[in-house]
Amino acid sequence: MRIDFLADTNILINLLEGDKRLLSYTEKLFAVSFISEIELLGMPGITPAQVKISRSLLNACVMIPYSDEIKEIAIELKQKQKITLPDALIAATGIRYNIPVLTFDKGFKKIPGISLLLLE
Description:
By secondary structure, this protein is α/β, with parallel strands linked by helices.
């Protein structure tokens, strides 16, 4: 199975909001980090209907679970870069599995060793 990209949480949010720029990406096989699942479903004020739709989207993705390898890469990234923990975990997941990270977040550009698909 060849995964085309790892979707950052902001990609999932924009998909759920109907962002037309992402339509071509929905035809590809993409993965999601466990941390994006937590961020998406843990949003303050999320309604039961939104949870259902979000879970449906997540179920259509390849879910990449937490691992000690991801943790160690994230620790190293946090030591060297000023990035949030969720971004470190998503970047570490992409690095560990050699999957490009699709994001709108320009902060990922400063992370060494990451394959990046940066959308404007």
